[in-house]
Amino acid sequence: MKLGNVSVTYIETLANAIRRCGKRPEPLLNEFGLALPTLNDEQQQVSIAKFMHLGAAAITLTQEPYLGLIMGQHAPIQQWGLAGLLAMSAPNLKMAITALIDYECLTSESVRGESFIEYSGDSCHINFYSISPYTVYNQFIAESVLLSWLKTLRWLAKPENLLAEVFFEFPAPAYANQFKQFFKCPVYFSQPFNKLVISVSSLTQSNRFRHHVMYNSLLAVCEQKKKQLTFSARWQERVARILSRELHGGQPTLELTASQLGLSQWTLRRKLNEENTSFQKLLNQTRLDLALNYVKETPLSFSEIAYLLGFSSPEAFQRAFKRWTKQTPGQVRQKQ
């Protein structure tokens, strides 16, 4: 199981940020096997691991540690594909941000989770899932996502009078003073979540590009594509997707997984048995697949990987890894 994928539209956003820093992105893209023909096909996706390494290399190239903020500031609405066009034609800001979050899966998917919206009183909390621990390989992603959401909502509203607060999981970086300049609102670090908080009343503002006919047409297309992604998968693939997210620091159970699928435990057991597998087999296989990807494709320490996969200790993870592969995590990483 891969760590996830993102559309090449995000690569284009990164490339444009590199250009704004006075550097040519083409040599770097070629180094990562991302030539122009690939970027011209919006259906193409790249692994999140490759995107993380590309982002870190771009930060080194530009010498701009806050490259993620530059990405977010200049991200075009087309970055989100059909979901972006749906948001652009939505009647108001609430329906616009709902479109970006509900159909995020059309341009990106991560084993770490998915973005979601929740309401508390007059506050709308737009949450980007945790991707901790944070390093140069992934912090730029959280920065660019939250800023691109806020920038897009302000652009749709005009004038840019949308008040907000921004929260990040990671500690204040050395370039923390840049955040207020880019976000133009209070920014808080070392928080429990990555999220953008906006008043519900602010989201009632009309979208200056609203187009009811286009919105309804695009909504039908987005919903159809989302259903195709969801229901074309076998039951074991749906279970593996849930397990990969619930493993983050926890222990997934059959009861929890069945509940998320809207099934009883007995029904889920039966459906998996019809596909010649079981919940425990899928749990073990998902752990193995993710372990191999984390060891091979990320710079995470083995302690961090152990936590992400729900092991009680780094030693327990290393014992399990050697039982699965006949090699230690260190031996596998050295071969990369």
From TrEMBL:
Q: Which InterPro entries match?
A: AraC-type_N, Homeodomain-like_sf, HTH_AraC, HTH_AraC-typ_CS
What Pfam families does this protein's entry cite? Answer: Arabinose_bd (PF12625), HTH_18 (PF12833)
- Where does the record place the HTH araC/xylS-type domain? 237-335
Q: Does the keyword Magnesium apply?
A: no
Q: Which GO terms describe its molecular function?
A: DNA-binding transcription factor activity; transcription cis-regulatory region binding
Q: Where is the signal peptide?
A: none
Q: Does the keyword DNA-binding apply?
A: yes
Q: Which domain of life is it from?
A: Bacteria
Cite a GO CC annotation: cytosol
What are the record keywords, sorted?
A: DNA-binding, Transcription, Transcription regulation
Q: What is this protein called?
A: AraC family transcriptional regulator
Q: Which organism is it from?
A: Zooshikella ganghwensis
Q: What is the lineage of its organism?
A: Bacteria, Pseudomonadati, Pseudomonadota, Gammaproteobacteria, Oceanospirillales
